[in-house]
Amino acid sequence: MAPWQHGIGRIEAFFSGEAYAPHRHDTYSIGYTIHGVQSFDYRGARSDSMPGQVIVLHPDEIHNGEAGTNDGFHYRMIYIEPSIVRDALGARATTLPFVKNAVFEDPRLLHAIHAACADMDRVLEPTALDEIAVLLADGLLANNTSIRGSVSTLIDARALDRARAYLDANLDRTVASAELEGITGQDRFSLARQFRKAYGTSPHRYLMMRRLDRARAGIASGLSLADAALVAGFSDQAHMTRRFKTNYGISPGHWQRLLAKAR
Q1: pTM for the whole structure
Q2: Domain boundaries, the chain
Q3: Could you tell me the superkingdom of the organism this chain comes from (predicted)?
Q4: N or C: lower Cβ tally within 10 Å for the chain?
């Protein structure tokens, strides 16, 4: 289970047999099955989620949970407050999305869950939570045709330039969403959408990749892994290692050894 933070909860768990008695949340529950068969009763029907399938349970809906086979099931789940989804939707919808099917395949929502659970040991940074809220809200909206909107996202190039410059200048610390709102005049969710359209990624991922650039430069210059992590703005070497492996497929230590061989 990830550390507690306001507005969003994240868990990864394995269960065999009965996992949960009938209960309900006041949040959206959005997750996916990693291994096994995840079975539950929801809105008067039985559902079975297979590996890679997305699960969406709506606020205040009673459901239970159990393993569909004797092998048990392994899953990840995000619990996000409806108010965050509502704010992230902005003008795209007048009501909260409702997804009819509890289990389905959707690469957008799967991507959002992976992004939210990439580093379960740490609280999500503000810009990361903004990114995840936008991904989840847009994914829910895309699966609810009754309120699917057609609002286009315009780009304020000057505001985005200010946001990018501010991120570049503050790689070594956590950047609050309110800071970016203040310098751009955009609300955090509009900014996240515009930033992705302009630069192909979210403000948080942009910040993370620039930290990794700085870490690689530090390692290449001869810094120890621990010092490179701190100089780049990571909280410690373990944090840098997880992000490095996620983005490059190898550990920073492995990359350091490759550099040494090339010299």
Answers
A1: 0.76
A2: 8-146, 152-200, 206-262
A3: Bacteria
A4: C
